[in-house]
Amino acid sequence: MTQQEEPPAPNLFRSEKRFKRYKTIHTGYPKILVKEGQEINKGDTIYKIIRIGAEKDIKSDVKGLVKEINHYYFIENIKIPRFAQFNVPLVSVEHEIMINLREEWEEKHYSFILAAFECDYFHAPYPGAEPYVKVGDKIDIGKIISVASIMKQKEEIPSDIEGIVAKIYFEDGQRVYKGEKLIGLKQDN
C-alpha cells in the first residue's frame, strides 16, 4: 500500500445532506401537521392519515428541516388536502447523516464475504482451537473461514472469493444477519 491508500482513522466522520420523503402508507385524507421551513425532531408527528373515521400518526425518523409539502390543491388561495392514493409523496425533510470515513474507504477497497443466513458464527471449529483465518492470511476460494451454528447444527462456511484478510467483522459466537459482512478482503498485489 502506498501512503495515500492508507485507510483513515476509524473515528473520522463527514456529514452529508440527504432528503427523506414521507409517502402515504395507505389511501386516505392526509392532515399535514408541519410547515415548509420548520425544524422537526425525530419522533415528531409529520402528518395524520384519515381513513374511514380512523387516524394514523406518521412520525419522523430523522431530525431535519421540512423542505417541501406536496399534497394540497388551492381554492381561492386556501390550501385544501386532497385524497391521497397509496405511496404518494407528501413531505420531504432535509437531514444530515454522519458517514464514517473508514467504513466508506473499506467499501471502496475491500471485497466482502457476506453472511448467507442469520445465525451464530464462530472463528474456530471448537473453543480453544486455532481460528480458521486471521488478519493478514491469504485465502483462496473454498477455504473454510468460519463455522455457523444453525438450529444446533454446525456448518462450515467456505470463502467464495480470494484475497488477503484485512478485517474480520464478527466476534466469535456473534449473531450475524443475512447479508451482513463477515470478512473484508484486500486483493493481493
Notes on the protein architecture:
The protein is mainly β. The protein has 2 domains: 16-100, OB fold (Dihydrolipoamide Acetyltransferase, E2P) (Beta Barrel); 110-186, Beta Barrel (OB fold (Dihydrolipoamide Acetyltransferase, E2P)), CATH 2.40.50. 5% of the residues lie in helices and 50% in strands. It has 1 helix and 17 strands. The chain has one helix at 101-109, and strands at 13-23, 29-32, 39-40, 45-51, 54-59, 64-69, 72-75, 78-81, 89-100, 111-114, 119-122, 138-139, 144-150, 153-158, 163-168, 174-176, 181-186. The protein has a 4-stranded antiparallel beta sheet with strand order 1-9-6-3. It has a 4-stranded antiparallel beta sheet with strand order 10-17-15-12, with helices on one face. Strands 14-13-11-16 form a 4-stranded antiparallel beta sheet, with no helix packed on it. Strand 4 and strand 5 (54-59) form a beta hairpin. The longest helix has 9 residues, at 101-109. The relative contact order is 0.17. The mean pLDDT is 87.
Number of DSSP E strands: 17
What's the CATH first level of the largest domain?
Mainly Beta
Termini Cα gap: 9 Å
Number of domains: 2
What best-fitting shape do the alpha-carbon axes yield?
elongated
Order of helices and strands: EEEEEEEEEHEEEEEEEE
What can be said about the biggest beta sheet? 4 strands, antiparallel
CATH architecture name of the largest domain? Beta Barrel
Strand order of the largest sheet: 1-9-6-3
Helix content: under 10%
CATH superfamily of the largest domain: RNA polymerase II/Efflux pump adaptor protein, barrel-sandwich hybrid domain
Q: Would you tell me which CATH topology of the largest domain applies?
A: OB fold (Dihydrolipoamide Acetyltransferase, E2P)
Supply Rg.
24 Å
Give the helix/strand class.
mainly beta
Mean pLDDT: 87
Helix count equals: 1
Q: Beta fraction of the residues?
A: over 45%
